[in-house]
Amino acid sequence: MAVFRARAVAVATGVPALFALAAGLLTVSATNPTASAAESAAVPVLVQAPFAVTRPGKRIGYRPIPITHRVSTSEPVAFITIDDGVVKDTKGLAYVEEQELPITAFLSTWTVKDRAGYFERLTAWGSIQNHSATHSSFADATTDLGHEICYSQRALRKSFGERAWMLRPPYGQGADAFGTAVMSQRCDITEIVMWDATVSDGRARFASGKLRPGSIVLLHFTSDLARDLKAAVAEIRKAGLTPANLADYLPRSDVPLS
């Protein structure tokens, strides 16, 4: 499967400053959402970084870490990703198994506990990746990135038997921070994965007005997972695309990027 992966940002011109700020095109300090454990999977109202495909992280003497909002491919595919893991919805699992959907689960490791089997079944056609240990913001200077990233790598491997190589920072914050790049490289992360579309409450929102080939769709593990999955699949098919396994397009690399 030949897949061309660009390492550039499509810079949008004429975007109002307020929109760019809200959508993540401008870098600002952001307050962490306040949420209970059960609500920590709340979906952001706005999708991140319109018009971005992929862009490199900071070069820090090891290797660049790609930050991917949308995979650059001409193939008619899109990718369903689900974050956190607080709620283990059985209806959502049943729909995934019925449709054999390729799901990439970005798990906060504290949510796994004794339910590893649930996530293994849900990602049977996809993969399990790193979403931190405690869901603390990587933009917060007090966050222990070694624990959030590296401990999670060890915990995921212990629970599921394989090393994760993709990382999604909680809330989408701190993806391009120096500390995130350093710790990611130290702990075998080779891709930082964001998104360009979200589905929550059965509704889809898009960074650039529609899904495109290579779009990465963000959902969360909630009690409405089945409804959101059906909405995501409907939007993907309406756009003439097919759900695909993100790991096939951002494959694990055991060789450091240069």
Structure description:
With 258 residues, the protein is α/β, with parallel strands linked by helices. It has a single domain, classed as Glycoside hydrolase/deacetylase (TIM Barrel, Alpha-Beta Barrel). The strands form two sheets. Strands 3, 4, 5, 8, 9, 10 and 11 form a seven-stranded mixed beta sheet that branches. α2 packs parallel to α6 and α4 packs parallel to α5. The longest helix is centred in the middle third of the chain and has 16 residues. The radius of gyration is 17 Å and the shape is globular. It starts with 16 loop residues before the first helix and ends in a 9-residue tail after the last helix. The N terminus is likely disordered.
Keyphrases for this structure?
about 260 residues, alpha/beta, TIM Barrel, four-stranded mixed beta sheet, 7 helices, 11 strands, about 25% helix
